[in-house]
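Put briefly, the fold is written as integer tokens. The lines below illustrate.
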Amino acid sequence: MSGRRIAILGDGKMGQTIRQLAVEKGWKVTAVVGERESDGGKGITALSLGEPEVAVEFTQPDAAVGNITACLRAGVPVIAGTTGWYDSLPEVTRIAKETGTPLLWSPNFSLGVNVLIELSRYAGTMMRALTEFDAHIVETHHAGKKDAPSGTAIAIAKAASEALERPIPTTSVRTGSVPGTHELIFDGGFEQLSLTHLARDRRVFAEGALKAADWLVGKHGVFTMRDVLELPARG
């Protein structure tokens, strides 16, 4: 049982999943704020959020920056789960440091996906000399996901391609209600090697977000899930 106080920005499927799991785990949900209520961050203050210890943000790319910035300026530590806004990450990072409010962002809060990103980096290193293998990433999400490729696919591609020392193309599929599937494929003339993560339920992302939220309280700085999971430093 956590007992921590948490506000949720975003009342869509992801926000509702986090709320449900938070209550089950003993968190006190101080507010669930929809996009219209937050008004791009204009309606967000510590008081309007119920004075939480931490907030989680899962909305849409065009609303995320305003919401995250408002939380930072209000002194509310924030977990940023929305993707598709990372062009603004340097400015948001600056605001976090300027205000002294901790920020944790991640393209994916699944614990398994974050391990997959590190495995992709290692696989790229191992496959570097095997030029007869082509590399490709395929990611599949529900039809309502706005950004393509996904933030997770971008992170996998960055990790693997830097190690492989050549770019890796990505194919994005948007269909049905798929929570999220990511596959890194190395294909040779007579064999194929693949690394795959399959999310079976949205609760996997909620679980990781709550783990990150609990970890962030009392911290100072800007972090990612690498810090939460204490993954080894990059070589």
Notes: The chain has a mean pLDDT of 93.
